[in-house]
């Protein structure tokens, strides 16, 4: 058995979007977390464990133009976790698998916020629309890389995020979009900008093909599908919807860090969206 303690804090500015994915607003998110885990190692590359996590989130609109929060929330999350990583490289792997599973219960929430649409107050933490009773919080990320030829790799990915018996808005939602995991509760999706969709439930599947132009330069094409907001008993700020998207990426594995330049498109944005990533994202637990 191995004990592990993880702490993290950050402040980010997050853009919000209209229904047709034009930029609509901007808010600042401050987030801090501390997590204690007890893990049982299952060989060199796998671990099964339990953990408890404290989370604090502060949401402050800078430019309010659609559904947004102004306030903060504290919560605790007890969870089971399984981790597996047999990939042959940190950046641009060509074989093996990465798996991340978390099954948790969120409880002891202490919220204080206003829910806004533009400058109109829609509700507070005391609104009958919302509930801060314990709810299930489940996450899955599975990535598989299969070598097809010396320079060609097949990419497969499945993601899921579910908040079970959850009647809240935004604060603990899953955020969908972007190609790199850089936000709390994020589900990546080729074709949407980061925070393109806020939802309490989402599943996504992706298939991709990477070809190495040289040992340091590659081109990757990805296609994916997403179905979100399908848990009917939850509070839903938008109807259930199926989204398709894809991206074409030029990747450079430089001496300092990986550099990606991408063009994305989806059936809801209906336009080409540029996306850039420099460095190795560490992601969230």
The SS-based structural class is mainly beta
Number of strands: 16
In total, the number of domains comes to 1
Q: Architecture, CATH level 2?
A: Beta Barrel
Percent of residues in helices comes to under 10%
The CATH topology annotation reads as Porin
Main beta sheet: 13 strands, antiparallel
CATH superfamily: membrane protein fhac: a member of the omp85/tpsb transporter family
Intertermini distance: 19 Å
Strand content: over 45%
Domain OMP85-like membrane spanning beta-barrel: 130-282
Protein name: OMP85-like membrane spanning beta-barrel domain-containing protein
Comma- or semicolon-separated keywords:
285 residues; Omp85-like_dom; Porin; mainly beta; 0% helix; 16 strands; OMP85-like membrane spanning beta-barrel domain-containing protein
């Amino acid at each position: 058995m191995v004990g592990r303690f993880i702490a993290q804090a950050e402040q980010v500015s997050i853009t919000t979007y209209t229904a047709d994915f034009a930029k609509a607003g901007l808010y600042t998110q401050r987030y801090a977390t501390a997590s204690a885990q007890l893990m049982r190692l299952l060989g060199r590359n796998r671990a099964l464990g339990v953990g408890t996590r404290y989370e604090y989130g502060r949401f402050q609109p800078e430019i309010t133009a659609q559904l947004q929060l102004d306030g903060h929330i504290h919560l605790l999350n007890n969870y089971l976790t399984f981790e597996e990583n047999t990939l042959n490289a940190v950046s641009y792997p060509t074989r093996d698998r990465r798996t991340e599973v978390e099954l948790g219960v969120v409880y002891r929430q202490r919220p204080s916020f206003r829910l806004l649409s533009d400058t109109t107050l829609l509700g507070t933490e005391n609104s009958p629309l919302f509930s801060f009773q314990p709810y299930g919080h489940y996450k899955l990320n599975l990535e598989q890389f299969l070598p097809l030829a010396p320079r060609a790799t097949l990419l497969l990915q499945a993601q899921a995020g579910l908040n079970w018996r959850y009647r809240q808005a935004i604060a603990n939602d899953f955020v969908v979009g972007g190609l790199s995991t850089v936000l709390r509760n994020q589900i990546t999706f080729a074709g949407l900008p980061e925070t393109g969709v806020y939802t309490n439930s989402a599943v996504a599947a992706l298939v991709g093909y990477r070809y190495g132009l040289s040992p340091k330069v590659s081109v990757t094409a990805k296609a994916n599908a997403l179905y979100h907001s399908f848990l009917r008993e939850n509070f839903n700020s938008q109807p259930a919807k199926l989204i398709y998207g894809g991206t074409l990426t030029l990747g450079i594995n430089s001496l300092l860090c990986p550099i990606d330049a991408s063009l994305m498109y989806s059936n809801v944005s209906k336009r080409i969206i540029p996306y850039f990533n420099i460095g190795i994202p560490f992601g969230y637990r």
